[in-house]
Specification:
By secondary structure, the protein is an all-alpha fold. The protein has four helices and no strands.
Length: about 80
């Protein structure tokens, strides 16, 4: 995996983190950031699920009971 960091950030990283600890440091930082994003998404979903408009739209979709045919499964072979 290859990526580029802004020069000033790379300089700080090299100065502050020992060479043998850099991979571990980046792995921990990335894991933490991804966890934070997951938590934000969970909170956004919880807020949306409490919204009465969203609940009404969801109820409308749940009322649709017909099965829709997919064009690629119903097409005749050539």
């Amino acid at each position: 995996m290859t990526f580029t960091l802004p020069a000033d950030l790379a300089d700080q990283f090299v100065r502050r983190v020992a060479p043998r600890k850099r991979s571990h440091y980046l792995a921990q930082a990335l894991a933490q950031k991804l966890h934070e994003r997951d938590q934000q998404l969970i909170r956004a979903c919880e807020v949306a699920n409490r919204n009465l408009e969203v609940q009404a739209i969801e109820k409308e979709f749940d009322a649709i009971s017909e099965e829709f045919r997919e064009p690629w499964t119903d097409a005749k072979a050539r």
